[in-house]
Amino acid sequence: MSLLEIKDLRVTYGSGASAVPAVRGVDLTLAAGRKLGVAGESGCGKSTLALALLRLLPASARLSGEILLDGEDVLTMKWGRLRAVRWAGASVVFQGAMHSLNAVRRIGDQIAEPVLVHGRATPGAAQRRAGELLEQVGLPASRAAAYPHELSGGQRQRVMIAMALACDPRLLIADEPTTALDVMIQAQILRLIEQLVSGQDVGLLMISHDLAVLADTCDRLAVMYAGRVVEEGPARSVYEAAEHPYGRALSAAFPRIGDPASRRAPRGLPGDPPDPSALPEGCAFHPRCPVALEVCGRDEQELREAGPDRLAACVRAGVREEA
Q: Which GO annotations describe the biological process of this protein (predicted)?
């Protein structure tokens, strides 16, 4: 049995004429000890997907489908069980550590809090656990006495990872964990997350706009556009030879080692993602697609086989030489 199974997940904000579909029929699977990346531009629905996994969305959001975590459906859980699952079953490393941490509480107290709240230890044992977690993420235990503003951006992100691991979750959700960090610190944080996941047999779902980062960190990669997964497959394979035109555009936006042309002029993608409340007919990507066909403006494409262990929602899937 998979650690995480997402089946036909749909998330809509509002209702009636003002309803906005943010996630539209997503299906994904993640096994324990494996790493799944989700990529896409801002507004594609990837962060909404991450928050939906633990029902952390506002009351205006309507969810349907199934989110099976160790076989239990998160969407039908009672409040008490959901509260426990949010720590012991799965934890989130949010974007922007400075905004996620309490500015007037010491770091050690914030890491120890979930251990205390969920009845795992006495106050003294919880503080010792906080020190152990700080050392596990590469910080001295003495930093438990520090306040968030006394730490660097990379150190604060390590604290967020320590807090997420406090109750030994089975699933770690990392939403843009390296946002606003310099390149060297990004690499350190990514290696840390990778080591922790592999060493503890924890499943990782990582959200990012950066295909290069996900290809280097994850086993599999799902590309989202306008609330749907438009491509899925082995991470390195999707990054190096995407089958969907949108995946290729994302990949081409980043310079590559050994490719001088990409360093001089990384290719972008004209236009903006569509308004979720007014999606175009047919494939939502077709107004921006450089290889769109007439059928693309008429029919929305479902994921189809596009090669060994590859899926793509495109009429050209599996025939890239025509693009």
A: peptide transport
pLDDT at residue 253, as a whole number: 79
Tokens of 111: 């890491």
Helix-strand-coil split of the chain, %, nearest 5: 40, 20, 40
In-domain check, residue 176: yes
Sheet containing strand 171-175, edge to edge, reads 90-93, 171-175, 203-208, 35-39, 220-225, 228-234, 311-312, 304-305
Q: What is the pLDDT of residues 218-227, one digit of tens each?
A: 999 999 999 9
* Pair 256, 215: CB distance under 8 Å: no
Q: How far is CA 278 from the centre of its chain?
A: 25
Question: Which range (60-69, 82-91, 262-271) has the least confidence?
Answer: 262-271
Q: What is the mean pLDDT of residues 88-107?
A: 90
For residue 87, the domain's CATH number is: 3.40.50.300
Residue 79 contacts by C-beta under 8 Å, 6 or more apart in sequence? Answer: none
Question: What pLDDT shows up at residue 200?
Answer: 79
Place of tokens 């006394």: 150
Distance CA 8, CA 259 (A): 39
Structure tokens at 113: 């809090």
Report how many domains make up the chain.
1
Mean pLDDT of 165-191: 88
- At 2-23, the pLDDT tens digits run 899 999 999 999 988 789 999 9
**Does a structural domain hold residue 18?**
yes
Identify each DSSP E strand in 52-145 by its residue range. Answer: 61-69, 72-73, 90-93
The Cα–Cα gap between 63 and 22 comes to 10
**Residue 145, in any domain of the structure:** no
- Residue 110 included in any domain: no
Residue 314 burial (10 A CB sphere; 0-12, 13-18, 19+): buried
